[in-house]
Amino acid sequence: MAQSKQQTTQVTNSHTIPVVLTIAGSDSGGGAGIQADIKAMSATGSFGCSVITAITSQNTQGVSAIFPIPLAHVASQLDAVFTDLNIVAVKIGMLADANIIQVVADKIQQYQPKHLVIDPVMVATSGDLLLEQAAISSLKNKLIPLADIITPNLPEGATLTGRPVPQSEVEMNDMIDDLRALGAKAVLLKGGHLEADENSNDVLILPTSSEVIRAKRIATNNTHGTGCTLSSAMASYLAQGHDLSQAVVLAKRYISATLAHADELNIGRGHGPVHHFFAGHEYVR
Q1: pTM
Q2: Where is the Pyridoxamine kinase/Phosphomethylpyrimidine kinase domain (predicted)?
Q3: How far apart are CA 181 and CA 178, in angstroms?
Q4: SS3 171
Q5: Rounded mean pLDDT of 248-270?
Q6: 280 annotated active-site
Q7: Are 184 and 145 contacting, i.e. CB atoms less than 8 angstroms apart?
Q8: Domain assignments of the chain as residue spans, ordered by start
């Protein structure tokens, strides 16, 4: 009888947490990629799991090597998590080539997660393309039309549309129709690259409307992993039941806070990471 009561108590006290999957590359420096995704998901109240598409040799100063994961193992990771975990939302980041994009697109269509956020990682900070043209075409044709929202920065928006990189908010607005035509349900065009502006504003593009999501620009050198963090927080909030606009606003608020606290960290000699766990920094000693 005592054992039965104990079992009942355990069931009653159990906590259901939304599960969010990140499909992306691994950052050995811990500031971006899979590592940033799981930190952001955890900090915003979800359980993060992962499928690794590539292993990067990376730190705060840059990427020195990329090793794509064999296709069969990408597929087996996807099958493993989808057949066991109740994945509510998926965030997709770095996909190394067209073949991996095809595998991921096939599995997304097979398992049909409720929410899909795509951060189209395709342009390095230097301006160099991280994906070949065939892979960019595959991303546009096979994955982006499946997304609830994509989150390109300005160089990525330019690559997706064939337009010049916007130099102002007016030019960001000029890109709206072309981004909408990509087929995702929504687009968040991120304005962080307009570094001369006092604000870091993004444009949320919906099927028949658009709105500016405003935030003050944070002066910090620790900006590594901002795109990964924002899109992962967005997927986390969607998994928790927020509608798309609410998820975007909450994710923008979260990334602004991680940037505001980023200088509390002293990680590496280059562009350090944002502070994912700023709200719980009083660690147990």
Answers
A1: 0.92
A2: 27-275
A3: 5
A4: helix
A5: 96
A6: no
A7: yes
A8: 19-268
